[in-house]
Amino acid sequence: MFSSVSAVLFILLCALVPAATIIFCQFKNRQLKRRSPISEPLLPLPGETLQKNLNFENNKLIAVFSFSALIPSIILICLMGQWINPAFVQFHWIDLLWAMICGASITTSVYATKKIMARRKAFTAGLMGEMATAEYFTPLVREGWYLFHDLSFPRGNIDHVLVGPTGIFAIETKYRSKYADIKGGQGALAEYDGHSILFSGRRQEDLPLQQAKAVSGELSKYLRGKLGYTVPVRPVVSLPGWRIENYLPDEESEVIVINPKNFRRLKNFQAIINAPEAIKVTSALEEIAKKSPQKPFYKSIIKR
């Protein structure tokens, strides 16, 4: 029995040593009398929150793999110390308990892995969409527009905000996969009638429109509090890779739906923002952009 206990302790030690080493290195780094020369907070990058969420899911996946290997190994060693006898093999009631724990561990690992992989897939797709949208909007920046990414508000993040002569645009990016069995232009066609979006003639959605209106309203409220007067914010849904067929002119649509490659559609509106007002708006946006978008780590764990 002593040998089994020793083996279990050895496995636990091997598992804990890397974690202890990481904690020790972090502690030593904090003790160093050196600090980063960059003291001011930086503006968020496209999809920064999604990237952090993706990294968090990767860490959880590593933890699941570790425990799925560690727990059965410990149980196996304990059982080896109990039932293996040179003369015969004998089972006890405690062995059934060990087997149940092992089975529960494997089942939990499989469930957790499937859940994490699904979240990783969603985060990866969202990140790809936000990065594509940011890249396609970049030419507007060279023309004097302002582009912000991943602004954090109480009700959620705004993927992108564009500020230019024709207005302020709160952009909700949606990454939607195409149907592999639909060939030709129909497979990448998104039809917008002002109330919902029909993807490839199959899947109809109105949630992206509602989300775009919600974040634009929150942004307008924030700017009104900062500037002292109401600033209209146009909600936009960005669909990278899709061909948009609009049944209403942009001027009559409550929400603008575009492929970000066709960003010049946003320049077709009447100019309503002059240079001094644009500076005030961007200053207010920079203020909230430099605030940390992430919740404390323990709250993220509880939420998940």
From TrEMBL:
Keyword list, A-Z: Membrane, Transmembrane, Transmembrane helix
Stored InterPro entries: NERD
Domain NERD, first and last residues per copy: 125-222
PROSITE patterns membership: NERD
Keyword Transmembrane helix carried by entry: yes
Residue spans crossing the bilayer: 6-25, 61-84, 96-113
Protein name: NERD domain protein
